[in-house]
Design goal:
- The protein is globular.
- Strands 2-1-3-4 form a four-stranded parallel beta sheet, covered by helices on one side.
- It has 139 residues and is of the alpha/beta class.
- The model has no long low-confidence stretch (mean pLDDT 90).
- The longest helix has 17 residues.
- Helix 1 links the parallel strand 1 and strand 2.
- It contains five helices and four strands; from the N terminus they run E-H-E-H-E-H-E-H-H.
- Helix 3 crosses helix 4.
């Protein structure tokens, strides 16, 4: 059974957010997915934040997550480049993103075709250094 993180880019409208959550949970039940967690954040419609993507990576590394499920592509990022960058980060750890609207094909095509600027492959030392820098950032 596929274990998924249900991801919501929330609106601060409780009714809308609950309805989206209900649709996502129903989608997971319809596809016989096990929900490993439901996570929502309000990023002012800019898409999944980097800390959330890192959380998904952590869940995948600990073998508690197989995929992320959300409503539509714009919940992943607010531009093609942002969506592909997030997909790249998740794809490096074999975490696909699936949407209720099934609108991710063009972004995965861009990711795998090299159409978008791809980040360089990082060795472990570089990756750890970037993670340390991320956690030491000040607002």
């Amino acid at each position: 059974m596929k274990r998924v993180l249900v991801y919501l880019n929330t609106t601060d409208n409780v009714v809308v957010d609950k309805q989206m959550e209900s649709i996502l949970v129903g989608y997971c039940k319809q596809h016989d997915y096990e929900i490993a967690g439901i996570f929502g954040e309000n990023t002012s419609r800019t898409g999944m934040s980097e800390p959330t993507a890192f959380m998904a990576v952590g869940m995948a590394v600990t073998d508690t997550l197989d995929a992320v499920v959300t409503m539509f592509a714009e919940m992943v990022g607010d531009s093609k480049e942002a969506i592909v960058n997030t997909l790249q980060m998740l794809d490096d750890f074999n975490i696909p993103v699936e949407t209720v609207l099934d609108d991710m094909d063009e972004y995965y095509e861009a990711l795998y075709s090299g159409e978008m600027h791809q980040e360089e492959e990082m060795d472990l030392e570089t990756f750890v250094e970037r993670i340390k820098d991320f956690f030491n950032m000040e607002d």
